Amino acid sequence: MDLQLENRSALVCGGSSGLGFGVAEALAREGVRVCLLARNLSKLELAVERIRKEGGEAQAVAVDLNDLGALEMAIEQVVAAIGTPDILVANNGGPPPINAVDFDPQLWHRQLDAMLLSSMALVNAFLPSMRQRRFGRILMISSTSVVEPIPGLVLSSALRAALANWAKTLSAEVAADGVTVNTLMPGSFWTERTETLTLRAAERSGMPVASLMAKEQAAIPVGRYGATEEFGAVAAFLASPLASYVTGALVPVDGGVLKG
To answer: SUPFAM superfamilies per the record (predicted)?
Structure first.
């Protein structure tokens, strides 16, 4: 299927690895000029090299999304590299595990900047151009914890839910301008973060890693972890003109885990 994305441009946050890279790779294969935004320059360079080897167009900008001042400068670099993007993929690595009873105001403030305000700042920077040309796609990469909080990950669950509600509100405000805003809710995909969380869980429980992985996958109706390519394919469709009637949606990509 031709997704009609040839010659479009996209900014993919967290694009150096994991789900972000899966989205960037899928868009590049459709002819989109992608700019990857992440903290680690060496990982960014490797990701750009992989995309270019497949014939895609890719640039990279290194920035820490925790630093809103640095993000402003990074936005200028993005525009210099690919112009004002048609597609914004707002994505950030998950915060550290914490329980609701373990209140740490400084940690909450840092993660508020990284997970919520950084995405809002990026939208604020690029939305006017999207509305002016009457085409824009904003994708928030979130988690199933938006609707079913995950024990021990209260920072992630609470802040992602806040961002999803903001995105839903925004979607109605810009729908008539040809701009769609959707939130993707990935379930269990085997990424670096998943591996880290699984190793921590195995250490806490005393269960062998292989046994814990088998248990986790058995709880997924399709019986396995998702592949980043599968997630990228869903995101690429939502970024395309073919998905112009899909906006304000919470889209689960979770192998059937969510029941509601």
So the answer is: NAD(P)-binding Rossmann-fold domains (SSF51735)
